[in-house]
Amino acid sequence: MAVLKVTFTKTNRDKLAQVLWVLNWVSVVTGVTLFSLGLFLKVEIVKRRELMSKEIVSVPNMLICVGLTACAINFLGGKICYDCVDTTKFLRWKLLMLPYIICTFFFTFCILVGALMCYSMRNDLEESLFLGLRDAMRYYKDTDMPGRCYIKRTMDMLQMQFQCCGNGGYRDWFHIQWISNRYLDMTDSEVVERLRSNVEGKYLIDGVPFSCCGLHSLRPCIQHQITNNSAHYNYDYRKEELNLNRRGCRQALLEHYTQIMQSIGLIVLIIWLFEVSVLTGVRYLQTAMENVLRLGDPDSESDGWLLENSIADTARYNFNIIKNLGKCYQVDDDPNIDVPSSSLQAQENVPVKQIPVAR
Amino acid sequence: MVVGKMKFTFQKRVKLAQGLWLLSWLATLGGAVTFTLGCFLKTELRRRGEVMDNTDIHCVPNTLMIVGLASMGINYFASRICQDALDPGRFPRWKTFLKPYFGCSVFFTTLMLISVILSYAMKGSLETSLKIGLKNGIRFYKDTDTPGRCFQKQTIDHLQMEFQCCGNNDYKDWFEVQWISNRYLDFSSKEVKDCIKSNVDGRYLVDGVPFSCCNPSSPRPCIQYKITNNTAHYNYDHQTEELNIFIRGCREALVNYYMGLMNTIGAVVLSVFLLQSSVLASVRLLQTSMEAVAGQENVEIETEGYLLEKGVKETFMEYVDPVLKLLLLNQVTPPEAKPEAGATGTTTTTS
């Protein structure tokens, strides 16, 4: 009992082959799209590698590989479908078609996995950003140390571009020393007192770098003595909302990447649906062509199906094959061994053949 | 005196028509590209229109857009003409259309060349416009409570951060303007009172700049107040400190940006112009060589094609005269006046 059987006339088969040829070429284009999406994501992640503790390579690499494989598979598929119109040319591909369909089936499964990975990347990313930003803020002042001298610039550009401040908020800057000792006058009593009052000897202030300043503020930016209302005229830090960027950079970057990932995930899902439909078409074409060859007349009608038997039977059949693969060295099922049969009927039914004697 | 005379065999005519068909489609693409570039330039100019005093510079993208659209139309007709050219039955219906077609095409192609020249020539106008616009922007920076000027602060801050520039000519422009509003100045403080008293106009001037002038590439936290005072900051010399704030002026930055954009666009449009001119010349040669074939029995004879039948000046006058007549600039004197003038002339001589 075949699964989803459809009858194809000769013209139907030809049309199906032509349509599949075009669709396979469209799939090559979508494969290129997948590849470029993976590349774009990789570039976006590498751009901000300094702000992440652990670079997320799995998702973009997966997309790149899947994109390249899609191009190759669909290119081959296009050639096969082009040859399917002619039964003589189809014979060339006959043996290759079933393995091709199985490969494409697993490959389409990989596309689905890729799409789902896009949506699940968020948690990993959040943790990576939290640790990365914390370290970046800690090394903000180390502009004279090799390997860390560009972190200040990266952090400033990030805060200006995404209009964010600090890790979770602007108060993160109050807990670290972001002004290097090179620019602190150690003879100044105020500086000395502040250093002494801190347990670890760090110069902590209630101030933020200039890149935290809000663009929409109505007054010139207040970046030092933020929590001290009396230090500035007509200022209340609890009511002042536009002075500094309120959003934390972790939140800002997470939103940015989540948006990218969701768009990419959606596009990959659409491409997956398209690939599944192409695969279904190729399967129907393969079974229809094989049945035509079995019937002998190339112009006759033939049936095409997804599976020859029901799903349960096919599964059992394949499972038996896999089971028997492992038993190739076992002796039990060797037909050449003489096993005494228990029933008399079986004995009678076995025809006894006489060896012809030459006279 | 014929200009650009060439002999064409039948095979050459066929090849010319085929090549022309391909060229005209390429030129249509070129026209579309010109139109897109014009739109892009206009968008870029409008984005920063708040720091420009006038919109004179917009004539460049407007011309590019007009020329782009016209070019697409011209090349579409060129492809239709060359498709019909080799068929002697279909070609004569284009006869009356061709003269105005060539007139328009030459006009728009010259306009394309003019737009390229304009994009280089308008640099001075752009610079003046930016100078005035930026000066006003810096003057009204503090007026965030005045309607019509409340976004100047945001615009100037955004501009300085994006183009990595400070002030109009350089950062010292901020020293000459009061950019901190009186709303945020404590008039009971001695320091503020001294500062205002020492200024002739009663303005609060500081040797400081807004935060948007700060350079992220600086190794030390930004020093934006008391910039010229070395003793106010530890280990600081304002004459040797180059990375602290942006040294470049915003006018220079913007002019460089727009001239770079217009140079690239100019180069592309120039190549489209060359393509367009070759299309027009080919259409003309094809037309003139096919005209000689018309009426002949054997269509495969060798004919002559030319660009202009008469000299350049005469052809130009031939095209311009109808236009002038239309505009009534070249009036023909009425014939009754002439014999009257002749009669008065003779009467005066006799008497």
From TrEMBL, chain A:
<dbReference type="InterPro" id="IPR000830">
    <property type="entry name" value="Peripherin/rom-1"/>
</dbReference>
<dbReference type="Pfam" id="PF00335">
    <property type="entry name" value="Tetraspanin"/>
</dbReference>
<keyword id="KW-0472">Membrane</keyword>
<dbReference type="InterPro" id="IPR008952">
    <property type="entry name" value="Tetraspanin_EC2_sf"/>
</dbReference>
<dbReference type="InterPro" id="IPR042026">
    <property type="entry name" value="Peripherin_LEL"/>
</dbReference>
<feature type="transmembrane region" description="Helical">
    <location>
        <begin position="55"/>
        <end position="77"/>
    </location>
</feature>
<dbReference type="GO" id="GO:0005886">
    <property type="term" value="C:plasma membrane"/>
</dbReference>
<feature type="transmembrane region" description="Helical">
    <location>
        <begin position="97"/>
        <end position="119"/>
    </location>
</feature>
<protein>
    <submittedName>
        <fullName>Peripherin 2-like b</fullName>
    </submittedName>
</protein>
<dbReference type="GO" id="GO:0007601">
    <property type="term" value="P:visual perception"/>
</dbReference>
<dbReference type="InterPro" id="IPR018499">
    <property type="entry name" value="Tetraspanin/Peripherin"/>
</dbReference>
<comment type="similarity">
    <text>Belongs to the PRPH2/ROM1 family.</text>
</comment>
<keyword id="KW-1133">Transmembrane helix</keyword>
<feature type="transmembrane region" description="Helical">
    <location>
        <begin position="264"/>
        <end position="285"/>
    </location>
</feature>
<feature type="transmembrane region" description="Helical">
    <location>
        <begin position="20"/>
        <end position="43"/>
    </location>
</feature>
<keyword id="KW-0812">Transmembrane</keyword>
UniProtKB/TrEMBL annotation, chain B:
<comment type="similarity">
    <text>Belongs to the PRPH2/ROM1 family.</text>
</comment>
<dbReference type="InterPro" id="IPR018499">
    <property type="entry name" value="Tetraspanin/Peripherin"/>
</dbReference>
<dbReference type="InterPro" id="IPR008952">
    <property type="entry name" value="Tetraspanin_EC2_sf"/>
</dbReference>
<dbReference type="InterPro" id="IPR018498">
    <property type="entry name" value="Peripherin/rom-1_CS"/>
</dbReference>
<feature type="transmembrane region" description="Helical">
    <location>
        <begin position="62"/>
        <end position="78"/>
    </location>
</feature>
<feature type="transmembrane region" description="Helical">
    <location>
        <begin position="98"/>
        <end position="121"/>
    </location>
</feature>
<keyword id="KW-0472">Membrane</keyword>
<keyword id="KW-0812">Transmembrane</keyword>
<dbReference type="InterPro" id="IPR000830">
    <property type="entry name" value="Peripherin/rom-1"/>
</dbReference>
<dbReference type="GO" id="GO:0007601">
    <property type="term" value="P:visual perception"/>
</dbReference>
<feature type="transmembrane region" description="Helical">
    <location>
        <begin position="20"/>
        <end position="41"/>
    </location>
</feature>
<feature type="transmembrane region" description="Helical">
    <location>
        <begin position="255"/>
        <end position="275"/>
    </location>
</feature>
<keyword id="KW-1133">Transmembrane helix</keyword>
<protein>
    <submittedName>
        <fullName>RDS/peripherin-like protein xRDS35</fullName>
    </submittedName>
</protein>
<dbReference type="GO" id="GO:0005886">
    <property type="term" value="C:plasma membrane"/>
</dbReference>
<dbReference type="Pfam" id="PF00335">
    <property type="entry name" value="Tetraspanin"/>
</dbReference>
<dbReference type="InterPro" id="IPR042026">
    <property type="entry name" value="Peripherin_LEL"/>
</dbReference>
